[in-house]
Write a structure and sequence with these properties.
Elements lengths: L3 H6 L3 H41 L6 H33 L4 E7 L6 E6 L3 E3 L2 E6 L6 H5 L3 E7 L2 E16 L2 E7 L5 H9 L16 H7 L6 E6 L5 H15 L9 E4 L3 H6 L3 H4 L6 E3 L1 H8 L5 E2 L11 H9 L3 H12 L1 H5 L5 E3 L2 E3 L1 H10 L5 H17 L11 H9 L7 H12 L12 E2 L1 H14 L10 E4 L7 H10 L3 E6 L13 H7 L4 E5 L1 E2 L4 H10 L5 E2 L8 E5 L2 H16 L5 E6 L2 H11 L5 E3 L10 E6 H4 L4 E6 L10 H11 L2 E10 L11
Helix pairs in contact: 2-3, 6-7, 15-16, 17-18, 18-19, 21-25
Length: 685
């Protein structure tokens, strides 16, 4: 029933009546769904009991039929449970918008309610899925002439009404109607909320430019350059949800994977697709991929934090291998493979032989086929040639015998030797160093895999039909080249080159666009995460900071301290202030993982704090201490940045770090420093 408070705050009595009627139908549907699930469960248990009681008496044919029936009941039961769960979620919040559309030639407009999932009751569509074609009217059109692409063709007409709602716990909290930018007020309400432990769906506040990206189903590769807080990761995940809806039956969650920077970030985004009614997608890191591909081939050391090593030569090697020119040099070297790895000789068996020149030309003709596979194909070709000669029946060489002779013609026997030869060919042998026997430095792992693809081949994934790559600025050109080999499928690649936090990476957005020349490219320059004041402060550090949404809050504060002891005291007072603020999360962000561990040791003795490290797997609310690198992609209600002094943050690389740290804050930002504050923080304009 509708209560008096709702009647006072909701200006549309018809909407309250509609919600009440819909809730009754949802209640009926949920009871039916519960009954269906219980009936299937009873049928399943009855079938199991029958098979257990009469196992010795049932003939094999009947047993087989019963097992098939059980599998079918299991599948039917799983589907029934998913339907029931969707209805239960709709009970909490059945829809968030309404559009009234009058097609050309129609005398009246028809109302469409839009929610997370569609809902039918007695063959009547009561709620449209936000991904349905008609829902595009809500995201893309204002009152007046409008249209959308329906399965039967383009539908033109007029949008006569547009309303937006917030329904929670089955109760309507607000309803808004407007003819222009229906989402402005709702967007402000949503952005003012506190943070969550998991990234949430944004279906109620998707903007027009975001909707175009989400519904782009034709791009083979989509590159999204999105500023801090622009919602690029959320948009990419909503795009996956849209594609799973649009191509149901051809694309499933098992066909999609995401490359993410660390497990904490993977956990943070893990709830978006389930919230939209889709199964979670598999998450991988570059190290996971390398471990699978190089198992039994060669070992590798994990990536190092360049800010925690004084090894200048190591940094130079890593930087050298991060460029597009390095990938291009690898490609030029691999073009020389026929001459580099193979020295053909006459292949003779008995009185018959094939000339070396024919063999060498045939080897070269197989182009991009891996060397080891070329030899197998060549052995088959030679065997066919020998088979055309009048060999005695018992003297015709086998394919295996021919292959053995061909392998003896290899000048280089394995990928490691070939990879080492590349640096000799390039004239920079000092750029390749093994930290231990048969162990690669991290910067060599993907260049090695790229060479391995040409020498022995890689285990390409045919199951994955869509790859999402987040934080694209963190991956080098050669890493993208290997991903292209492993995953020859549709891709969504996103990130922000303004947030590159690895000084050993020297590639640019322009380099990436050269790798993906045929990709659709979009830029997102508006920040929805931080208040206007926080973004204006970030512009003092990075003038190219994004355009802020007009959501106002507290001015960021710079807190000078007399020494490290006072700085620690001030951090503790900010923690105490946070605990009484009503905010859900506070991030204390420092320069390195080592700094985070040291600060955690000091603060954890008297404060409830937790530490985020590269080994962490979960993001939880409360007070988190983390390096800026670990905090990328995350957001906090409040952020504290200690040591914002001229010595700690001094270089252009430090400018990126400081900018990333500031733009993690949604509502409150505090920077502390001892001595002179960082010169990277410009004056107020």
């Amino acid at each position: 029933m509708t209560n008096e408070k709702e009647r006072e705050t909701i200006p549309f009595p018809d909407e309250l009546a509609h919600l009440t009627a819909l809730r009754c139908k949802l209640d009926d549907a949920l009871r039916e769904a519960d009954d269906t699930v219980e009936q299937i469960d009873r049928d399943y248990m009855r079938e199991k009991r029958y098979m257990a009681q009469y196992r010795g008496e049932i003939d094999p044919h009947e047993m087989f039929q019963n097992e098939l029936a059980l599998r079918q009941l299991d599948r039917t039961g799983a589907f029934a449970v998913s339907v029931r769960d969707q209805i239960a979620k709709l009970q909490d919040s059945p829809y968030f918008a309404r559009v009234d559309f009058q097609p050309h030639g129609s005398k009246a407009a028809f109302p469409y309610y839009i929610g997370r999932f569609s809902f039918r009751h007695q063959d009547e569509l009561l709620v449209c899925d936000w991904r349905a074609p008609v829902a595009g009217l809500f995201y893309d059109c204002e009152i007046g002439p409008a249209g959308y692409d329906a399965p039967m063709g383009r539908m033109e007409g007029a949008l006569t009404r547009k309303r937006q709602f917030k329904i929670k716990g089955g109760r309507m909290e607000y309803a808004i109607e407007t003819s222009v930018n229906v989402q402005d007020e709702v967007l402000q309400r949503e952005l003012s909320h506190t943070s969550d432990e998991k990234m949430k769906s944004i279906i109620a506040t998707i903007q027009k430019e975001q909707n175009r990206i989400i519904r782009n189903e034709k791009a083979g590769t989509l590159l999204i350059q999105g500023a801090a807080g622009s919602g690029k990761t959320s948009i990419a995940l909503h795009r996956i949800a849209y594609l799973l809806y649009r191509f149901k039956g051809r694309l499933s969650a098992q066909n999609v994977t995401i490359i993410s920077p660390n497990r904490v970030f993977g956990d943070y985004i893990s709830n978006v697709l389930p919230e939209l009614g889709e199964e979670p997608i598999y998450e991988l890191g570059l190290a996971d991929i390398a471990a699978v591909q190089l198992e039994g081939v060669i070992a590798f050391e994990p990536d190092r934090d360049p800010m925690e090593t004084e090894d200048a030569a190591w940094k130079e090697r890593a930087r050298f291998k991060s460029t597009l020119s390095f990938l291009e040099a690898l490609d030029r070297f691999l073009e020389t493979l026929p001459a580099t790895v193979f020295a053909a000789a006459d292949c003779a068996f008995g009185e018959y032989s094939v000339e070396a020149a024919w063999i060498q030309n045939r080897f070269a003709a197989y182009g991009r086929v891996p060397v080891k596979r070329r030899l197998e194909l060549l052995a088959s070709d030679l065997h066919d040639r020998f088979a055309s000669e009048p060999f005695a029946d018992d003297s015709l060489p086998t394919v295996k015998a021919v292959l053995k002779q061909l392998r003896s013609m290899l000048k280089i026997k394995n990928t490691l030797a070939l990879y080492r030869a590349f640096y000799q060919w390039l004239g920079v042998p000092e750029q390749f160093v093994l930290p231990a026997k048969k162990t690669l430095e991290w910067a060599d792992v993907y260049p090695f895999l790229y060479v391995h693809a040409s020498f022995e081949g890689l285990q390409e994934s045919r199951m994955i039909r869509h790859l999402v790559v987040d934080e694209m600025q963190d991956y080098t050109p050669v890493q993208f080249a290997v991903l292209n080999r492993l995953f020859p499928c549709q891709k969504t690649i996103l990130g922000d080159f303004g947030q590159c936090v690895d000084p050993c990476h020297a590639h640019t957005l322009a380099d990436l666009r050269r790798i993906y020349q045929d990709a659709d490219f979009v830029e997102l320059n508006k920040s929805y995460r931080s208040t206007y004041e926080i973004i204006q402060f970030a512009k003092r550090i990075q003038p190219a900071a994004p355009e802020p949404v007009e959501r106002h809050g507290e001015e960021p504060v710079l807190l000078p301290c007399a020494g490290t002891a006072e700085e620690l005291e001030r951090i503790e007072s900010l923690i105490e202030m946070f605990q009484h603020s009503g905010f859900a999360s506070l991030g204390i962000l420092v320069k390195t993982n080592r700094d985070a561990e040291a600060l955690y040791e000091k603060l954890s003795q008297r404060n409830a704090v937790h530490l985020l490290t590269p080994e962490s797997s979960r993001f939880i609310n409360g007070v988190s201490i983390a390096s800026i690198r670990m905090a990328k992609g995350l957001e906090f209600d409040a952020v504290v940045i200690p040591d914002a002094d001229a010595e700690t943050y001094a270089t252009e690389y430090d400018r990126n770090l400081l900018y990333v740290a500031c733009t993690r804050a949604m509502h409150r930002l505090s920077l502390l420093y001892t001595g002179e504050r960082s010169r990277l923080i410009g004056e107020t304009t």
